[in-house]
Amino acid sequence: MADQYLTFFLAEEEYAVGILQVREILELCPITRLPATPAHVRGVINVRGSVVPVIDLAVKIGLAETQVTRRTCVVIVEVAWEEGTKVLGILVDAVHQVIELTADAIEAPPSFGTQIHPSYLRGMARAEAKFVMLLDLDRLLTAAEIAAVEPAGGAGAESAETAEAAAWVGEGFPAAAAAEAP
Q1: What is the pLDDT of residues 21-63, one digit of tens each?
Q2: Are β-strands 84-92 and 50-56 bridged in parallel, bridged antiparallel, or unpaired?
Q3: pTM score, two decimals?
Q4: Torsion angles phi and psi, residue 118, rounded to 5
Q5: Under a CB-based contact definition with an 8 Å cutoff, are residues 6 and 98 in contact?
Q6: What is the pLDDT of residues 103-151, one digit of tens each?
Q7: Do residues 92 and 57 make contact, with C-beta atoms less than 8 angstroms apart?
Q8: What is the structure's pLDDT at 149?
Q9: How far apart are alpha carbons 11 and 6 in whole angstroms?
Q10: How many CB atoms lie within 10 A of CB 81?
């Protein structure tokens, strides 16, 4: 049986995530920056009344910051964390297609030569003439890294949306996890 994956581009390389983790694809909208967050946390967006953190996936995997173009979009995904599932947005250069892959079409990731750490990859698969790297979002986007936000109402809270986002990102995290965040 084949599984489906959504493919997208980051810095001219093609990546994919399991389609079951994808909630929706949004045209790029204004992103509210948050103070005291890691460089890969681009900010938050409003998705039908919910505050959703947006991660610049290129920065997270060690590439240059995503340059906004007319094809740049936010893929809304669900990521498994200890306390349950969280909804996050990942900023990508462009969405490409949905592909179907069988288990035997997926190869183990190489231990060298990729721009991303092999532990963040589920594998690699041939799509047309080149390989697509299959990301493991649950390992790549951990709660401890996303929780590195000042508490709501702290210094630098610039708006109600910023304060709400800081509270959302901080809620439900054990104190130890927040302290360990970079």
Answers
A1: 999 999 999 999 988 888 899 999 999 999 999 999 999 888 8
A2: parallel
A3: 0.77
A4: -55, -25
A5: yes
A6: 888 888 777 666 677 778 889 998 777 889 999 998 888 877 666 543 3
A7: yes
A8: 41
A9: 17
A10: 19
Can you list the domains of the chain with their CATH numbers? 3-142 (2.40.50.180)
How many Å apart are CA 17 and CA 40, to the nearest integer? Answer: 18
- Residue 145 near residue 38, CB atoms below 8 Å: yes
Secondary structure, 3-state, 88-109: EEEEECEEEEEEEECHHHEECC
How buried is residue 156: exposed, middle or buried, by Cβ count under 10 Å (0-12/13-18/19+)?
A: exposed
Torsion region of 114: left, alpha or beta (phi above 0 gives left; psi -120 to 50 gives alpha): beta
Beta bridge partner(s), residue 14: 9
At 74, list the tokens.
Answer: 């936010």
User: Within 13 Å and on the Cβ side, how many CA atoms surround 129?
Assistant: 0
Residue 155's identity, in one-letter code, is A
